[in-house]
Amino acid sequence: MLSSPQNKSNFVCSLPPNTSLDTHHTPITCTMIFILQGGSSSPAATAAQSCQTIVSNRRFQTCQQLPQLQATLAWTFYDQSNTIDFAFSDSMINPHGWVGWGINPVTLAMEGTQALIAFQGEYAPTLQTYNLTAATLQGVPLTPGRIELNFTGMSAEMTGADMTIFATLHLRPNQSLELNHVWNQGRSIDISTLVPGAHAMTGGSLLSASSINMATGISTIIELTHQKLKNVHGIINAVSWGLLLPLGVMAARYLRRFSGANPWWFYIHVTCQCLGYLLGVVGWALGIKLENYNKSTVHYKHRNLGIAIFTLATLQVLAIILRPRKDRKVRKIWNVYHHAVGYSTIVLIIINIFEGIEILSPGNGWQTAYISVIVVLGSSSIGLEILTWGLWLKHHHHHEPGSKSLEEGLASNGQESQTTTHGK
Fold first, then answer.
1. Where are the bilayer-spanning segments (predicted)?
2. 31-73 pLDDT, tens per residue?
3. Whole-angstrom distance between the N-terminal and C-terminal Cα of the chain?
4. Which three-class secondary structure string do you get for 319-369?
């Protein structure tokens, strides 16, 4: 959902020497420089970008590179007729997709936007008008319909992979020149019903809106709602579920096999698992809070995986509390259950962390960092697994065949008695 907080930015138009801003000169190149006033910078404000004032042989007075999805907007404001000619351009994701641009008369948000959506028809580019309502955000199919904004001269042109929407907006008397622009792109559209498929629910697709003063070019861009809370949610869950829990599993799996590691492996295992679970509960609660804040944008896969992970982790905690003694026959069944649930939880955690990274879109550095963590943990596990089996084979070679399990094979080093003391 597109909403505040917002950042103000200045629009600077760079003209060739000795020229003025009118429509009788050769094409001018405009650059947009965001000067943020407080708060953290957004991705769109990191560098100047260029655009052209001549689009498909049509000349416009001003242009702006929009802050998301590589879209551009060119326009000419006619004071006498109180009209604005627009040319919105964006790249099609694929030949069967769509590109949309519109104006929200009320606020800088998707809901309430009166949009023009262009796509490749059977013979030529096609343009339709759509009203984006609250029902649209709840999943009701978006069908073409009449809009209240007075657009004329609407058309669409496609050049290569770029789609351009042309339209003239007739302003109401005394209407503000600061207009809320919303745009996006999607992968598919049903040609029979003209219902566009949903756009992406991550990154720039959630930030594609800007309020622009059509006379001065000064714009207001938006940032993801509750972004700091989302970052905290992601970091806590990555550390708790994605790091502490795997380290706890590795401690129980490998450290207990070495003489001198008792009873420390057990303390490390319990500490990592308990701390990871407690922090995970905090991260899970933050996720519920974020969902309540953004009921119109629900990431179902990420949410359902989170619920499954929390449920399995809670079962693991209860299993520890209800753990049978080692001399009970049911202990073997408990061990199988405990290990199966634990390893399954780790797999789901890794999948869901990547889902969360995709949703937050923090940059390739974060995903690379977590992949590095997985590689280090995985490589360490493989090395320790080889070493552990090497110890077992060495012991098995020097002892009678009756003692075949890895745990029993290392019991002669005095580990088993200490392990039993700690209930493992």
1. 234-252, 264-285, 305-322, 334-354, 369-393
2. 222 222 233 333 333 333 468 888 888 999 999 999 888 899 9
3. 50
4. HHHCCCCCCCCHHHHHHHHHHHHHHHHHHHHHHHHHHHHHHHCCCHHHHHH
Strands 125-131 and 72-78, sheet pairing: unpaired
Tokens 């052209």 locate to: 52
The tokens for 401 are 């065949």
Q: Are 423 and 334 in contact (CB under 8 A)?
A: no
Q: Tell whether pTM > 0.70.
A: no
Looking at the DSSP bridge assignments, the partners of residue 127 are 118
> Distance (Å, rounded) from C-alpha 266 to C-alpha 324?
17
Distances (CA, A) of 142 to 126, 186, 200, 201, 205: 16, 13, 15, 16, 17
Backbone angles phi, psi at 403, to 5 degrees: -100, 95
Q: How far apart are CA 357 and CA 225, in angstroms?
A: 16
Question: What tens digit of pLDDT does each residue of 164-206 get?
Answer: 999 999 999 888 999 999 999 999 999 989 999 988 877 677 7
Contacts 24+ apart (CB under 8 A), 42-50: 42/7, 42/67, 42/207, 42/221, 42/223, 43/67, 43/68, 43/204, 43/207, 44/68, 44/207, 44/221, 45/7, 45/9, 45/221
Report CA-CA distances (Å) from 248 to 185, 241, 254, 339, 376: 44, 11, 10, 12, 15
CB 138: neighbour CB atoms within 10 A?
9
Residue tagged 């059509």 (tokens)? 214
Closest to 361 measured CA to CA, from 43, 7, 36, 4: 43
Distance CA 189, CA 120 (A): 9
CB 95 within 8 A of CB 82: no
Question: What are the residues facing 72 on neighbouring strands?
Answer: 65, 89
Give 10-residue mean pLDDT values along the chain (424 residues): 40 35 34 29 38 88 89 93 94 92 89 92 91 84 92 93 94 91 92 89 79 86 66 87 88 75 80 89 86 70 89 85 80 85 89 84 74 87 81 66 48 40 40
Structure tokens belonging to residue 38: 């407080």
Written as six digits, the tokens of 398 are 């020097």
